[in-house]
Structures are given as C-alpha cells and as structure tokens.
Amino acid sequence: MGKFFVSIVKVIVAVVIINLLASFVYTRFDLTEDKRYTLSEPAVEVAQKFETPVIVDVLLDGNIPAEFSKLKAETIQLLESFASKNSNIKYNLVDPLEDSENPQETVAQLQALGLQPANVTVEENGKVSNELVFPWAMVNFNDQTVKVPLLKNKLGSKAEDRINNSVQQLEYAFADAFTKLSIEEKKSVAVIKGNGELDDIFIADYLTTIRDYYNIGAITLDSVATNSQNVLNQLKGFDLAIIAKPTEAFTDQEKYIMDQYIVQGGKSIWMVDQVNMEMDSIYAGGGEAIAVPRDLNLKDLFFKYGVRINPVLVNDLYFTQIVLASGEGNDSQYNPLPWLYYPMVFSQNNHPINTNIESVRLQFTSPMDVLENDYRKTILLQSSPLSKTDGIPRVVSLDMINQQPDRETYTNGNLPLAVLIEGNFTSMYKNRVKPLKLQNTLEEGPENKMIVISDGDVIKNQLRNGRPLELGYDKWTNSFYGNKEFLVNSTNYLLDNTGLINIRNKKVSIPLLDVKKIAKQKTKWQLVNIGFPVVLTLLFGLFFSYYRKRKFTA
After folding, report:
1. What pLDDT, in 10s, does the model give residues 164-216?
2. Which of 150, 177, 267, 493 has a 20 to 30 Å separation from 81 between CA atoms?
3. Is 230 buried (19+), middle (13-18) or exposed (0-12) by CB count in 10 A?
4. 307 near 411, Cβ under 8 Å?
5. pLDDT confidence tier of residue 475, bands split at 50, 70 and 90
C-alpha cells in the first residue's frame, strides 16, 4: 500500500514540475484535421508588424444563442493564436446591450456605426423567441478603428453552414483588418474616364471601400489625341485601372495607351456591356425597348488575351427580381417579379476571389468565349446550368414576366461571365503598325493579371435621395448580393503581393450538435452524464473496499 501512495506522490510532483516548466515555455499544438488554429504565414507577417497594443473588442459576450457561442469560441481561439505571435494583440469580450437603460437607443447607435444586428430565432423547450445579436469585432489601433463582421450569412444557409462559412472567413477578416491598420504605403487605383463610363456617384460605395487600402485617382483618355505620352506616363503611376461600363467606343490611340499600360505591368478590371439595354429604357418606352449591340472597339484587345464577349443576352432561370408598381395613387402596390435577364450567379468557390461569397447580381449580361492561348484563365463567375442565350437585336418587354419560360430550352448553361487572365502579356500591336508614337514601348511584358466581366452594372450602386447605397443592396426588394465582396476581392487579388487573400481558400469544418436530437434525447444524456460518473465512483469504492479486506485478511 505504501508503494501505491509513493507512486501517487511521484505523479503529482511530475505534473507540478511540468506545469511550472510550461509557464516559462509557451507552445500550442493544433490537432484539428483542418488546421484551423494554425495561422497562415501572410497572416502571421501582418500581425507581427504592430509594436504597440492592438485592442480587439468582440461584441459577443452575454447570453447569446448556441450557434453564436460556437462562433464566439472560434473567434477567441483565433485571437489567441494571433496573440501567440504578437503579444501586443489583445482582446476584450463586450456585451453591447449590457446595463443599457434604453436598449432600443443603443441598438440604433450601433446601427448608425454600421454594425447591423442579426435577428435570431431561438427555440428552447418548445418556446420560440427572437433575439438581437451583434456579431462584430472592433479592431482598435492608435486612433483608428476597423469593423470586422464575424457572421457570414449566405442565401439559404442552414445554421451549421452559416457557422462554417463564418469561421472559414475569420482568419482572413482579422488579417485584412490588421492590414488596413498597418498600411504604410498605399498602392494606387485609377478610374478611367472619357468613354462614357459610370459617374462617380454610381461607383461611390466601391471606391469608399477600397479607399482603406489604396489611393484613388482619375485618368481621362480624352487628351490621348493631343498628348498621348503624358497620358500614358500618368497612367503608369497607378497600379490598377478600373474601367466601369464604358458606353462610347475606344479610339485606336486610346486602345494602344491601355495596351501599353497592361503590357508594362498595369493591372486592370474591365466591366463592359456588349449589349445596349437598360431598365430605364424599358420604363421610358412604355414597357419595352430594343436591345442592340454596343461596339466599344475592344474585341481585338480581349481576343488577344483569350476572351470574346458575345453580343447576346443571358437568359437565366436562376434570376433576381425587379419591382413593378400596380394600381394608382394611394392604392399603388409594389410587387417583386422575376426578371430572367438579371441572373443570380452563385460562386463555384474555385478561387480566393469567389470563395465563400454571396451570390452576385448581374444585369443584361453577355456570355464570353474562353479561347485557347498561352495565358492562364480562371472562370470566376458563370451562369446557372439552367440558362441560355437570346440573340439581338430583339424587343425586350415587361410582358415576358407573364409568360411561363419553357424549361426544355434552357440547355446551354454554365456560360462564362467573369474571367481572370494571368501570364506574361504580349502587346496586341506586336508586329503591327502602331496608331501613334510612344516612348519606351514594350511588345513582351512581365507577369501580369487582368479581369474581364461582361456586365458594366456589376459595380453600380443604387441611390436614395441622391446618396449612394451599399453596393450589392437592392432597395426595391431589400435584398443583398455579393457584388461588393466580389469586386473588392478581385481588386485585392490583383494588387496583393503577400498572398494574404489566399487565406480565403482555407477550408474548415465545425461539427455542430443536432438541435432536434438534443430536444428528443435531452433526458437520456442528462442521466448518462450525471448517473454514469456516480455509478463508476460507487463501483470503484466497492472494488477498493473489497481489495483492502482481501489483502489485510489474507
């Protein structure tokens, strides 16, 4: 018996020594299959830049529903991983509604800051209640604050999918926030003007969002004819060019300027309509308008890089809605109705740009042919399998809302709508007569990237009372789409030299408890969890008593 107690003492001493040593030597072991607690190298690099405290306020404290408790735990684990790489990163748990004398006023103040709550339906013991939760974090550094959305809510997601989507984007969301706070020298983005592009107010939300990362300026191509070299020199001062829905054809001189900008390393995002059609034209035309081709004189430029935008319209059974008024005066009603020329495009999750994003809304878009050449091409967006093309010219009428589409004709689906092109770009004017003389031109360029999207309205935000709304929000149907995230991700990918955006490809899987099974088997598992340890203790006591009697009576 004495030897038994000596062994127990040795074990206790060993445990104490190990704990003392562990307090001096800190390490973590990630035993999860998906390595979700192992930070990516780009995330570690950006976290280690801070030499003074960064305080993260996580607004998930207090009594919150079970699924958000899981999100809270995963957020804390991630922040502890960041803190293990830089002790200046600290976090606090905050209940935004705690000790609030006027909760409604507090909610309004939080919403005014852009912190939208999640309305959660909670069912417990047969009772259903609604609770407001603010799934946000506020990252504070010096006098700057960056908001981090913790909840990733996608259309049609179940509770388990919603938490998986949210946890999957956590590392990138915080790394992105740390990047915004630590940027010392911003890259530059040029908004191209002069060919009937969208006015600034219609791309205001996109520009406001990327302003956290980049400097923004405008370049007008009107003066190419008189001072082409100066225009090219100014354009080369920018790292990325945004071409947002041009409506007037590019001259050969303007096209050569853009060609040289691209060949010499300038990134670009082209958002172009190959078909001239607008909802405003239909409304102004008494419910119908004629869709005709739009010639932008860019076919040969895109063809050189391996894509061709066809002058037809995509008709998709996975559609978004438009709102039409019926009745007159005070009796008017606004009804959301299907519109087959406004595709709802779901991501294939095949690239960091489109991974885990909400569906994107396109308007009067056209399909692209992806051609074989030396460039690497990735289809970022494509129509649904149940889509087809409608040729033009054609009359587009609101009467199509009342017509039942023939599902059997929707066989030409999965049409490319946005394509990423990468490679060592070659000038389309190689071995050709140049439309003007420029200094230091190149015919073979370095590794480069560009994105072509066959819809100019993908970047267009709506207005309310003359003020821009959030990109991707439709005020008529009160729906949110993923246009903003898609374009911001596209911009960051083109200009990211650190590989930070590749974190978005990280896959995690969070197993959650089945709520129905919990309700059905609650009593059973309560008895198991409470009764089994008691029974095990009694059996051990009986065995130990029997062992002692037998040993000392022998």
Report:
1. 788 888 998 999 999 988 888 899 999 999 999 999 999 999 999 999 889 99
2. 493
3. exposed
4. no
5. very high
Closest by alpha carbon to 283, among 315, 338, 324? 324
Neighbouring-strand partners of residue 193 = 220
Structural tokens at position 384: 């649904």
CB burial of residue 234 (10 Å; 0-12, 13-18, 19+):
middle
Q: Which two tokens stand for residue 506?
A: 């990280």
257, 232 Cβ separation under 8 angstroms: yes
Rg of the chain over all Cα atoms, to the nearest angstrom:
30
Could you give the CA distance from residue 379 to residue 363 in angstroms, rounded to a whole number? 18
With b for 16 or more beta-carbon neighbours within 10 A and e for fewer, the 254-275 pattern comes to bbbbbbbbbbbebbbbbbbbbb
Are 481 and 472 in contact by the 8 Å Cβ rule? The answer is yes
Helix axes 159-182, 66-85, angle to 10 degrees: 30
Give the pLDDT of residue 10.
67
Q: Domain 41-182: which topology?
A: Glutaredoxin (3.40.30)
Instruction: Quick: pLDDT tens for 499-530.
Output: 778 777 665 555 555 555 655 666 766 676 77
Pairwise CA distance, residues 167 & 546, whole Å: 52
Strands 394-397 and 368-370, bridge-based pairing: unpaired
1 C-beta neighbours (distance < 10 Å), count: 8
Q: Locate 81 and state its tokens.
A: 């991983």
**Side chain identity at residue 516, one-letter code:** K
Question: Which sequence spans correspond to the domains of the chain?
Answer: 41-182, 188-505
The helix/strand/coil state of 129 is strand
